[in-house]
Amino acid sequence: MGKVYLIGAGPGAADLITLRGARLLAQAEVVFHDALVQPELLALAPQAQHIAVGKRCRKLSTDQRFINRALVEAAQRHTIVVRLKGGDPMLFGRAQEEIAALREAGIAYEIVPGVTSALAAAADLGISLTQRGVSRNVVFVTPRVGTGETASDWTKSVLAADTAVLYMASGQAAQIAASLMQSGLPGSTPAALISNASLPTMQKILTTLAQLPEVAHNAASPALIVLGEVLSAQALEDLPEFIKHEHFSASS
Amino acid sequence: MGKVYLIGAGPGAADLITLRGARLLAQAEVVFHDALVQPELLALAPQAQHIAVGKRCRKLSTDQRFINRALVEAAQRHTIVVRLKGGDPMLFGRAQEEIAALREAGIAYEIVPGVTSALAAAADLGISLTQRGVSRNVVFVTPRVGTGETASDWTKSVLAADTAVLYMASGQAAQIAASLMQSGLPGSTPAALISNASLPTMQKILTTLAQLPEVAHNAASPALIVLGEVLSAQALEDLPEFIKHEHFSASS
Predict the structure, then answer these.
(1) Disulfide-capable partner of A78 in A29, B121, B138, B139 (CB 3.0 to 4.6 Å)?
(2) CB-based burial of residue A171 (10 Å sphere; 0-12 exposed, 13-18 middle, 19+ buried)?
(3) Is residue B129 within 8 Å of residue B230, measured between CB atoms?
(4) What is the pLDDT of residue A242?
(5) How many CB atoms lie within 10 A of CB B117?
(6) What is the mean pLDDT of residues A48-73?
(7) Would you say the C-alpha torsion A30, A35, A39, A40 has a positive or negative sign?
(8) Which residues of A touch B94 (CB under 8 A)?
């Protein structure tokens, strides 16, 4: 019986995986990877069989039960099986369902954490998500727009936090902005939209919550939205290379 | 003129730094590191001068202005200067102040993200911080206990989130639990205390918010506190190796 390693691939760039993750990839016999994982990362496991399974934002993805079953079966045939997940496995990765399936089948497993996209986005922005005197907490959220009863829960967590990072947010910017403003977050709240964090195709736009839908219209996927006063810090004022949306005023 | 790299060292284990971070450490001429960074990580930069500067939890640490000045001066004498920070630089790392100093001095800089401790703790617990049907968001917080006016802000962000991770929480568990219960979080809320995440000395205890002070009394530092229903998931029920506090009931 083999062992299954749930490994965080990191935000995208192949050299933002951990040393441990890279070492295990080099030893793996089979790698089940998210569709979003870059080819350069899979090149760290040239000897392994590569199997693409879910999750591409809002596109058809492999059924979770199929993935669970495939992991168990692979561990019955191979010594080192890797489940490579975008970002970190324990954040928006449905790892618990895979862990439950492995435990039920008596398969050994280990989790190797990774760099989550929000932190790569913060690095790309040059903006710390927490700042002395400005922000002492940050919430990571998947917004759930237009689903009635639960719709208010996620906005509540955003409103209560000093900084918020919205994952899987591209394509929903209009509904997100509307929900948040309806819940009481001012339209003047500084906002940033970051696509493809850590990759050469990275794009970042600084704007406000109210103007977000307009800016997000043509944004590439996957994208994160950052909200909060950390974005209006003095540090931003003289960043000429930063694409500032015309309506944004750092002194708001 | 050299360049300063603000690099996330990751949660503790030396092989949980990124490939990029390790490569830059191997090229660095001087490394300014947090006191908490493990010796094994510094061994990745055997050729470099190592300078310990802040931050050890609640112990005397180097003045931030001194660190800022030292980074600028080092970049004037060396090509590759590394500022190695525990976890990720953009989360509870005071990176913005260092970035501001570097920009003011016209020094080039780059940020290399890292694995933040909360994610290593989740891996050690075997618990995903988000779970389908249980938690769609997680807040990372530094609690500020006993400081009057701002005391309620941090509890608000915890109460509004599905899952909360409290950083730099060891030694304050009694005040933290009291503040949260006073703000309305039930004493029966599942809680976990994790010390030295990712290291051989890692300890994890599962308990409830009300019982946290008792459990935390002898916990090693640094420690994180995790709060939320993700901890009471079925996945925990048959984890014999997990130290369950006697008062905890998974079916609460």
Answers:
(1) A29
(2) middle
(3) yes
(4) 53
(5) 28
(6) 80
(7) negative
(8) 128, 132
User: A160: which chain B residues are within 8 Å (Cβ-Cβ)?
Assistant: 139, 156-157, 159-161
Question: Omega into B222 within 30° of 0, i.e. cis?
Answer: yes
Chain B contact probe: residue of A139, A202, A225 with most B CBs at under 10 A: A139
Residue ranges in chain B whose pLDDT is less than 70: 55-62, 146-152, 233-252
User: How far, in Å, are A49, A113, A134, B108 from residue B150 at the CA level?
Assistant: 53, 33, 12, 36
B24 membership: H or E segment, kind and range: helix B19-27
Length of chain B (residues): 252
Residue B146: its pLDDT value, please? 65
Residue B229 burial (CB count, 10 A) = 15
Nearest residue in A to B142, CA atom? A136
pTM of the predicted protein model? 0.92
The 3-state DSSP class for residue A206 equals strand
Taking the CA of residue B219 and the nearest CA in chain A, the distance in Å comes to 23
pLDDT at residue A233, rounded to an integer: 64
pLDDT tens for residues A188-231? 999 999 999 999 999 999 999 999 998 887 788 789 999 999 99
Return residues 85-144 of B near A (CB < 8 Å).
88-97, 99-100, 103, 111-116, 119-120, 122-123, 126-132, 136-142, 144
What's the complex ipTM? 0.91
Does the annotation count B34 as an active-site position?
yes
User: From CA A91, how far away is CA A141, in angstroms rounded?
Assistant: 10
Ordered domains of chain A (ranges, CATH): 3-112 (3.40.1010.10), 117-244 (3.30.950.10)
Is B55 tagged catalytic?
yes
Beta bridge partners, A165, equal A140, A226
Q: What is the pLDDT of residue B247?
A: 41
Q: Please say whether the beta carbons of B99 and B109 come within 8 A.
A: yes
Separate counts of helices (H) and strands (E) for chain B: 8, 11
The length of chain A is 252
Residue A65 forms contact with B (CB below 8 Å) = no
A184 touches chain B (CB under 8 A): no
Mean pLDDT of chain A: 88
> Are A160 and B161 an interchain contact pair (Cβ–Cβ within 8 Å)?
yes
Q: In this structure, how many other beta carbons lie within 10 angstroms of the beta carbon of residue B16?
A: 29
